[in-house]
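Researcher: Quick one. two chains, 229 residues in total.
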Amino acid sequence: AQSVTQLDSQVPVFEEAPVELRCNYSSSVSVYLFWYVQYPNQGLQLLLKYLSGSTLVKGINGFEAEFNKSQTSFHLRKPSVHISDTAEYFCAVSDPNTGFQKLVFGTGTRLLVSP
Amino acid sequence: ETGVTQSPTHLIKTRGQQVTLRCSSQSGHNTVSWYQQALGQGPQFIFQYYREEENGRGNFPPRFSGLQFPNYSSELNVNALELDDSALYLCASSLSGGAGEKLFFGSGTQLSVL
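Model:
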């Protein structure tokens, strides 16, 4: 079975500071990895995904993530955050070998950006 | 292009009742998935429908059922509601339901069971 651990439930940061949101996964098979963002009263929106190839993945809104197979991690980073980045961030995995799209999500990290 | 829309946005039911939630998928998408998001938790996969057939299911009991219509819109039905069913129910659509595809989520239906 696959699982995702997001150790930080909340990350406070000042505007224009860098941020890293941590994600570790557990899986006995190869995985696809995703980061989704959820703004208040909205559905989830895909930030980026790793399927194969380069381990450094660039996404929307200046975010990037690095897949580290040996550490089973997929941490999300942004060099300079904005107030508008305040949201809930979810890491998720899926199994490439299933015939359908089943995402297993972590419990989320709330990013709080203050002036 | 129209996005994923869900109705109603909020719903209050009592224990034992039945509920139907509705979802219109994004234009051009033939796959719909449903997720349950309890307060303070990540979404949990309920099931996926591809071209009107259920082709994947998570760890939810049979009282959670669904339908997908020829226009690819979808319904989630929950029978014999329990207090623990209180959650945000999210619908997501994708082009063809592959494991690596981008999901487009609706804003959800907030269900409260009293």
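The radius of gyration of chain A is 14 Å.
Researcher: Thanks, that's what I needed.
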